[in-house]
Specification:
The complex is a heterotrimer of chains A (249), B (445) and C (489). Chain B has 445 residues and is of the alpha/beta class. Chain B has helices spanning 12-23, 32-45, 60-63, 78-85, 123-128, 132-139, 148-156, 390-397, 403-419, 425-443; strands at 95-100, 103-105, 118-122, 161-165, 175-183, 188-197, 202-213, 218-227, 232-239, 247-256, 261-268, 273-282, 288-297, 302-311, 317-326, 331-340, 348-357, 363-372, 378-386. Chain B contains ten helices and 19 strands. A ten-stranded mixed sheet of chain B has the order 2-1-5-7-9-11-13-15-17-19. Chain B has a nine-stranded mixed sheet with strand order 3-4-6-8-10-12-14-16-18. The N and C termini of chain B lie far apart (64 Å). Chain C has one domain (2-484). Helices cover 25% and strands 33% of the residues of chain C. Chain C contains 13 helices and 24 strands. Chain C has 489 residues and is of the alpha/beta class. Chain C is globular and about 65 Å long. Classes of the chains: A alpha/beta (249), B alpha/beta (445), C alpha/beta (489).
Chain lengths: 249, 445, 489
């Protein structure tokens, strides 16, 4: 599914990713954990195709195709979905309008016809209900005035509608209380499938209690420092990241 | 060190305008003294240029080298005018008054009597009989009296519509004033309309200026709105179909009684040079004025909105919200001044100007001013100039929209937030449609 | 409203006594004859023993001045100044050019002591070790003392009266004088160019961080005398200097003219921080007397990544006409303007800044806090412009005004001009009065209304006070309280 090979990335001359290698198999849920400032968010942005990152070396392959050549739109249409750590507020664009624009864009890219409005409305309403997203939120401008939890739920709602190949969750648990966390995690778990993988980026083990990972990678100083099973997350919870950052424990 | 004040040479346009007046035009009926005094003011000041503070960003003297001639009304072009009127210039259900080539035209105006409570006459006929109300309005010393363009309008006003709304009349059907010019060559029109709204009445007025065959036309229009105590006026204006070398000048005067409401909005979707000036005075307590606008400019278009809100009494609210989208080499100007007089305590004034600059060579000039002499007030203004937010574009792209689609969506949103101010749904839909057309043209859709 | 009533009463009670620097130094002085003509210009030049080129420079300015008109665009009103009824040069008689402080008239030293400006280095040293400030003291038309010069010289820093620099560093003066504020920039700057008498000259060599704060202290003492000082500060590549300016004048019934020019030049990677506490005599409550402060201050960020920061606390002067500006010429250069302008009595303030973005990725920041009380008028006038080539220009402006009492005015006149598609300008301005809720909250906690107001005003200006060097900030805070005395209820 997703292969990151020897990825070197810098921002404004500062090296952030330093030869990172990572493989996520079909249907796999991979967690990436690590201390703050180690490049976790950079990795998610580089995969999604944000500008201002200088890729010096390496490849990111999605089903064997290097997506680094594509712009953000093409990657999204190829099945990359990034659930943002800080979802953008877009004043003046009603959430419904936005969702329709996104769904139609991806449908067109796949050579499918645009959704009929009643069909679209039905899909959105169903997905919204599952995630506890109130109907009136859909009429409001996207993310404007939404609480932290509402914004994160809106991200998962979009993922549910867009049905990506790989969902990247960037610190989706940050700013969520326990109830919101459970709703978001249930939303993600419902989307788990043989042909869909997830990259769950998190600082804390907490989220992984709800979204059980198949593999856990520890990231430090711009690369994967260790890879293991779910038990690795528990171990980190006890011992912290000191062993990986080179600082005294 | 006293040096003689150098007498500036008059431009060709200035000379032509002054001569036209001096030679006497039999179409300039009535208000003789008023016209003469105004012409003198214009002759002293000349066409506004950058040295005139209120015209700092619009050099009319430079832009209007020659003065176009007023065109005599003719019947040959009426079919063309009818075609032109088929365009969405006002609500379809509006009772419309059409001024065609500088004269009120009954044939092109709506059939039948105006809505109940509304009486109408042409300005020319009102001036011919020396209508006292009309003369009072024209004589009133408003903040814009000193403006050279207003003086020119007063001196050369050809015609217009005088509308009176009876006290208490709740007029459901909108009214529209349409200024049509045949165009096809350089042509001028000097129009003055007056809307007097009685106490407790309410009315919606649409105003549009259009040229059938866009060319280097020159329009100098003025509208005075007198809002009586407890009255409400909704006003929507648009500039449409002007030639690239056209000049469209518009002065709006609003005076408000107590507990009154005025909501105004103007769409400038394309233009040569547009200057819209608003002079509003709040003369009665507990009144609210809200002014908004959206200018969508491309090419070398130039749009200037300059307004003065004079809070003369306590407890009033004023809101201004203007947005510009500037492509190519277009220039946007917003100058807004909120004056709060010494006794106008508890004034609540808020003004915002926001511009998106898309074109490399486009420019935006903002001058939001506060002039405050009362201490117990809350006034503020904000002005921003910038581009589309890169992060928002990325977010939309990450959801599959192309860059062009993302930009269009964000531009539409930016425009829609301004259009939200338009209270009337039909007008809002019409303006939104015109905005869509503009955006579609931009993205080559 | 009791508070308002009290405010009115207090404003009415404002007395000249409120100005604590209003004393006159009784000192014999030498003056040029009243009035202005080419001979007076030559007289001033001769007094300073100036070389020919300097005399010619002045005369050229004078001739140009004759062809100019006084600007009238500012929101200030004053009777027409009779420029022939002024003295353009006044110097304490004892001051033929003192070689050391021992030669300085003790009366003068006492004046500066009274003003809280110690001129003896040992006295300064006796104070807190870390707060040493080198001072150039300008009394009417001449510089009377410049402290710490030897120590500064060790670091290569030149800090001396400009009259001296004309002789000792003519190449620097020739190169930079008038290069930021051209001779014909404006009426007052041109006048200043013709008749400037003294002021400070600073040169910081490449890579040097000036070891202490530099400061000039201006004092107008003589009657009917204009003060026309000229300051020139050059920060060469990679250097840093912080400069402070203070001013006072005696209380006099007639108005006095102060028309200074300050030019700053920052080369590549250099930084100049210029702070002013302006406390010229503001006139009495009825608007009698006071200084006309018509000043041109401009900084040129000539080199890439250079930075100029203006901070001003304006409490004095009958009329202030002053727009410390930055020309952001170098790529990635930065300009800042932090201002507190307080007006009371009949004061008129028209002040602000210009940020002219010429280079790429230049940034600027404007924070202006205006407080009007009494029957004063306080205007912020500013310009931010990005030229075609100034890609990536950024500006943030915040102008807040506070009104105390209802006989005063607060005005905001910003000009925001963008000729560049990549410029991002943000401007916000508010005008309000002290919130009754805040006052109530404070008084409910036991503060008197006056204390509460002072507290709130200090909070209002905090962003700017933070920009001042520590010693100045404390001074400024006291000054704010004094300036508002009697106006807050």
């Amino acid at each position: 599914m997703l292969e990151v090979k020897n990825l070197h990335v810098s921002v404004g001359g500062r090296k952030i990713l330093d030869g990172l290698n990572l493989t996520v198999k079909d249907g796999e849920v991979a967690a990436i954990m690590g201390p703050n400032g180690t490049g976790k968010s950079t990795l998610s942005y580089v995969i999604a195709g944000r500008e201002d990152y200088e890729v010096e070396e390496g490849e990111v392959l999605l089903d064997g195709v290097n997506i680094l050549e594509m712009d953000a739109t093409e990657r999204a249409n190829a099945g990359v979905f990034l659930a943002f750590q800080y979802p953008l507020e877009i004043p003046g664009v009603a959430t419904m309008t936005f969702l329709k624009a996104a769904l139609n864009a991806q449908a067109r890219a796949k050579g499918q016809g645009e959704l009929q409005t009643p069909e679209f409305m039905k899909k959105v309403r169903e997905a919204a209900q599952k995630l506890g997203v109130a109907q009136d939120m859909l009429k409001r401008p996207l993310n404007v005035g939404f609480s932290g939890g509402e914004k994160k739920r809106m991200e998962i709602l979009q993922m549910a509608l867009l049905q990506p190949k790989i969902g990247i969750l960037d610190e989706t648990d940050s700013g969520l209380d326990i109830d919101a966390l459970r709703i978001v995690a249930d939303g993600v778990n419902a989307l788990r499938a043989q042909d869909r993988s997830f990259l769950v980026i998190t600082h804390y083990q907490r989220l992984l209690d709800y979204i059980k990972p198949d593999t856990v990678h520890v990231m430090a100083r711009g690369k994967i420092a260790r890879t293991g099973g779910p038990e690795l997350a528990l171990e980190l919870e006890k011992s912290g990241y000191a062993a990986f950052t080179g600082e005294a424990a | 060190m006293n040096k003689p004040i150098l007498q500036r040479a008059r431009t060709e346009a200035e000379t032509a305008l002054i001569e036209r007046f001096d030679q006497g035009d039999r179409r300039l009926v009535g208000a003789t003294d008023l016209r003469a005094a105004a012409m003198q003011r214009f002759a002293d000041a000349g066409l506004p240029n950058r040295r005139v503070e209120a015209w700092h960003y619009t050099d009319l003297r430079g832009a209007m080298r020659t003065a176009a001639l007023a065109r005599a009304p003719d019947t040959a072009t009426l079919p063309l005018a009818r075609q032109c009127l088929a365009k969405p210039l006002a609500q379809t259900n509006a009772h419309r008054f059409v001024i065609f080539n500088g004269a009120y035209n009954e044939e092109l105006s709506s059939d039948g009597a105006p809505p109940a409570g509304v009486t109408v006459s042409s300005l020319a006929s009102a001036l011919a009989v020396g209508d006292a109300d009309v003369l009072d309005v024209l004589k009133a010393d408003t903040p814009g009296t000193g403006d050279a363009i207003v003086a020119l309008n007063t001196a050369l006003m050809q015609d217009g519509v005088v509308i009176r709304v009876a006290p208490g009349a709740k007029v459901e059907r909108p009214l529209a004033i349409l200024n049509l010019m045949t165009g096809g060559f350089a042509q001028a029109a000097f129009l003055r309309s007056i809307l007097i709204v009685g106490a407790g009445a309410s009315i919606m007025l649409d105003e549009a200026t259009a040229v059938c065959m866009p060319d280097a036309t020159q329009a100098n229009e003025a509208l005075t709105v007198v809002v009586g105590d407890g009255a409400r006026v909704d006003y929507a204006a648009q500039v449409a179909e002007q030639g690239a070398n056209s000049v469209a000048l518009h002065s709006l005067f609003v005076t408000m009684g107590a507990n009154a409401q005025f909501n105004g909005f103007c769409l400038v979707p394309t233009a040569g040079l547009v200057r819209r000036q608003i002079f509003a005075r709040l003369e009665g307590e507990h009144s609210t004025i809200s002014l908004g606008g959206l200018s969508l400019l491309r090419g070398k278009e130039h749009s200037d909105t300059t307004l003065v809100i004079d809070h003369a009494v306590p407890n009033c609210v004023s809101r201004e919200f203007f947005r510009h989208i500037l492509d190519h080499e277009a220039t946007g100007v917003f100058q807004g001044k909120v004056v709060v007089r010494q006794h106008a305590q508890k004034t609540d004034g808020g003004m915002k100007s926001q511009a998106l600059v898309l074109g490399e060579d486009a420019s935006m000039n903002n001058k939001p001013e506060l002039e405050i002499f009362a201490d117990d007030v809350v006034c503020g203004h904000g002005a921003t100039v910038g581009q589309l937010d890169k992060n928002q574009i990325f977010y939309l792209q990450a959801r599959g929209l192309s860059r062009g689609e993302a930009e269009s969506l964000l531009l539409e949103a930016f425009a829609n937030e301004a259009l939200d101010l338009v209270a009337d749904e039909a007008v809002r839909a019409r303006f939104a449609g015109q905005t869509d057309d503009w955006l579609a043209h931009r993205s080559g859709r | 409203m009791a508070a308002v009533k009290e405010t009115v009463d207090r404003v009415k009670a404002i007395d000249v006594d409120a100005y604590k620097y209003g004393f006159v130094t009784d000192i014999e002085s030498e003056k040029a004859p009243k009035g202005l003509n080419e001979d007076i210009v030559r007289f001033i030049s001769a007094k300073k023993n100036e070389p020919e080129w300097m005399t010619e420079w002045r005369l050229d300015a004078y001739r140009r001045w004759l062809t100019m008109d006084e600007p009238t665009w500012a929101r200030v009103e004053y009777p027409k100044i009779d420029f022939q009824d002024l003295y353009y040069y006044a110097a304490p008689k004892s001051m033929a050019g003192p070689k050391s402080l021992d030669e300085v008239d003790p009366e003068l030293l006492r004046t500066y002591e009274k003003l809280g400006i110690p001129l003896r280095e040992q006295e300064i040293l006796a104070g807190v070790q870390n707060s040493r400030v080198a001072v150039d003291a300008v009394f009417d038309s001449v510089s009377v003392a410049t402290t710490f010069r030897a120590e500064l010289a060790k670091a290569g820093v030149i800090f001396c009266p400009i009259s001296e620099a004309v002789h000792s560093h003519p190449e620097l003066v020739k190169k930079y004088l008038g290069s930021v504020v051209p001779v014909t920039d404006n009426y007052y700057a041109t006048l200043n160019s013709a008749v400037f008498s003294d002021g400070s000259f600073v040169y910081i060599p490449p890579g040097v961080r000036c070891p202490m704060e530099l400061s000039t202290y201006f004092r107008i003492n003589e009657r009917n005398t204009g003060q026309f000082e000229r300051t020139l500060i050059i920060a060469d590549a990679g250097s840093y200097v912080s400069y402070l300016e203070g001013c006072t004048a005696p209380q006099r019934d007639e108005n006095q003219l102060h028309a200074a020019v300050v030019e700053l030049i920052a080369h590549e990677d250099a930084e100049i921080k210029y702070s002013t506490v302006q406390n010229w005599f503001p006139g009495d409550a009825e608007g009698k007397g006071g200084i006309y402060n018509f000043v041109t201050k401009r900084g040129d960020c000539r080199g890439d990544r250079s930075k100029i920061s203006w901070t001003q606390v304006e409490t004095g002067s009958a009329i202030t006409w002053k727009y410390p500006s930055c020309i952001l010429r170098g790529d990635e250069s930065r300009g800042e303007f932090y201002s507190i302008a307080i007006s009371n009595g009949r004061q008129q303030v028209d002040s602000g800044t210009k940020m002219i973005h010429l280079g790429k990725n230049t940034t600027s920041r404007i924070i202006s806090k205006g407080i009007s009380a009494g029957r004063s008028n306080n205007t912020y006038r500013g310009q931010v412009s990005a030229h075609r080539k100034a890609t990536g220009a950024r500006n943030f402006t915040n102008c807040d005004s506070l009104l105390i009492g209802h006989d005063c005015g607060a005005h905001t006149v910003p000009y925001i001009e963008s000729k560049n598609a990549s410029a991002v300008f943000e401007h916000e301005a508010t005008t309000s009065k002290i919130s009754e809720d805040q006052l109530f909250y404070c008084t409910q906690r036991g503060l008197s209304e006056e204390e509460a107001t002072a507290l709130i005003v200090n909070g209002f200006v905090r962003d700017v006070l933070q920009q001042l060097p520590m010693e100045f900030a404390v001074e400024a805070q006291k000054l704010i309280a004094i300036s508002l005395e009697g106006s807050v209820g």
